[in-house]
Amino acid sequence: MKVKTNLWLIATLAFALFLSSCGGSAITPRMDNSSATGWAYNDPDWGGFEVVQYVEQEAGPNLTLIEGGVFTMGSVEQDVMYDWNSMRQRVTISSYYMDMTEVTNLNYLEYLHWIAKVYVEYPEIYQNALPDTLVWRDRLAYNEPFVDFYLRHPAFQDYPVVGVSWEQANDYSDWRTDRVNEKLLVDAGVLEIDATQMGGNTFNTDAYLAGQYAGAMGDGLQDANGNPRNARVEDGIMLPRYRLPTEAEWEYAALALIGNSETERISSYRFYPWDGHGLRNPDRQTRGVFMANFARGRGDYMGVAGYLNDNAAPTAPVNSYWPNDYGLYCMAGNVNEWVLDAYRSLSSVDVDDFNPYRGNIFTTLVRNQDGSLVDKNDTTGAMYYRQMGQTHWMSNLTPADVEDELDRDNYKSADNINYHDGDVRSTLGPNWLDDDGQTGSQRMYNYNGSDATTNSGATSLVTDEVRIFKGGGWKDRAYWLVPGTKRYLDQTKSSSDIGFRCAMIRVGSPGGFQ
User: How far apart are CA 243 and CA 500, in angstroms?
Assistant: First the structure.
């Protein structure tokens, strides 16, 4: 009997591995007993506690695994701008996934189509999602063809989308999370495909996990008693959120030092996402061709007719040139890319040395007085719509919302963008505003006197709404192609040379078990 049981377990594990290798979700029940109590899993006679036989996280569409590790973050180039905003420090990054290419016009048009189809009664949602095609205009240049055709013409389908603000890029990432997870549930037989979703009755990952999405249920998952049920986080079917990469993640992925390391020794560092200090390909077959799309000099964006060196004016298809050692394309040149971080000149010496990031605004689920979650279609009280139109219950975590915040050692407020650089602890005089914004006469970061609580003029170009972009673009010089360099722009603004790509956290083992 023991031999038969072991054979059955081996067959179960083999089937789970088969599902994982085919891109399916591992939903095979785990048939052993608890190491804590000895009670049987997935057995209604022993309480019915359900546990799946999970293998490991699968990569979402267009994502590749970036195995984390330690690296020295910061610019290796001479600071010709004298910003001193990218000083070097050693940090460790958790493993994560990242898009192999920048988000394309075609990807974004799919997003716009879905919004127009689903939110017919809310045209402002579609308008808010549209890229600003007028970013191509210049007062002394004729770029109207790009205004008219770059986003929608099929000739530009595989080119990076531009004119997208940081806020719009985040909304796209949220939408992508929901569409990918919806498909995974359909593939697993948990949901039936619903092409008639409209308005408030749309699949949203948060709403589904809270039991507030009324989609047609399949029979792909059953509880211990054999009844169909919804998927849960514990099933491992759905993926974590798509999002913008942090500055540290982006820089780590761009350098791709995994190609220059052996055991724990990095043999040589890099200026660019490739080896050496040169900008041209050294291989015999393609010797002399530029490794990226950038401006070689004043007025030279693509080379001489008959030999277009970078073959792109202005942008190039997102899979152009050569991928780095992580398999990522255009991590230098083509378009700059948004990252999650808010800009501060001294963040490199302030942030933590494990997964460094400035921009945390901690959130919590909004609940009714009885502890139940607020209904996703309730637009009163704590409910709000993001620009994209999805309903979220996520609201800022404030001392008024969470009483135990006073007893915490790891944070004392929800909004931590200003921590160590703009908050009361880092003020320079008695007149700066306190945390509650009720005293004093100035904010350390006050742009153009726009803060209604101040009585002074502009004190800085930096605000909590200013975000970092990196990588260099088609009209930048080589200096900005160095992964350690960075610039910043208000999160509501966009440009003809700023795009983005998505990232996703890796759960479980850093490098995988296969």
Answer: 10
What's the pTM? 0.87
In the numeric block, the tokens 């806020």 are attached to 167
| Structural contact between residues 503 and 482, judged by C-beta atoms closer than 8 angstroms | no
Task: Show pLDDT as tens, one digit a residue, over the chain (514 residues).
Answer: 444 444 444 444 444 444 444 444 446 788 889 999 999 998 888 888 988 888 888 899 999 999 999 999 988 877 777 677 888 899 999 999 999 999 999 999 999 999 999 999 889 999 999 999 999 999 999 999 999 999 999 999 999 999 999 999 999 999 999 999 999 999 999 999 988 888 778 898 988 888 888 788 888 888 878 888 889 999 999 999 999 999 999 999 999 998 888 788 787 788 899 988 888 888 888 888 888 999 988 888 888 888 887 888 899 999 999 999 999 999 999 999 999 999 998 888 889 999 999 999 887 777 778 877 777 766 543 333 333 334 343 333 344 344 555 677 787 777 888 888 877 666 656 555 555 555 555 566 665 544 444 445 556 778 889 999 999 999 999 999 999 999 999 999 999 999 999 999 999 888 865 4
**Contact, 277 vs 271, CB < 8 A?**
yes
Structural contact between residues 397 and 378, judged by C-beta atoms closer than 8 angstroms? no
| List of residues 6+ apart from 117 with CB closer than 8 A | none
**In this structure, what token pair is assigned to residue 282?**
């050294």
Burial track 44-63 (b if 16+ CB lie within 10 A, e otherwise): eeeeeebebbbbbbbebebb
3-state secondary structure 252-306: HHHHCHHHHEECCEECCCCCCCCCCCCCECCCCCCCCCECCCCCCECCECCCECC
The residues, ordered by sequence, that sit 6+ positions from 266 with a Cβ below 8 Å of its Cβ are 71, 257, 260
Q: Is cis: bond before 314, omega within 30 of 0?
A: yes
CA distance 146 to 159: 12
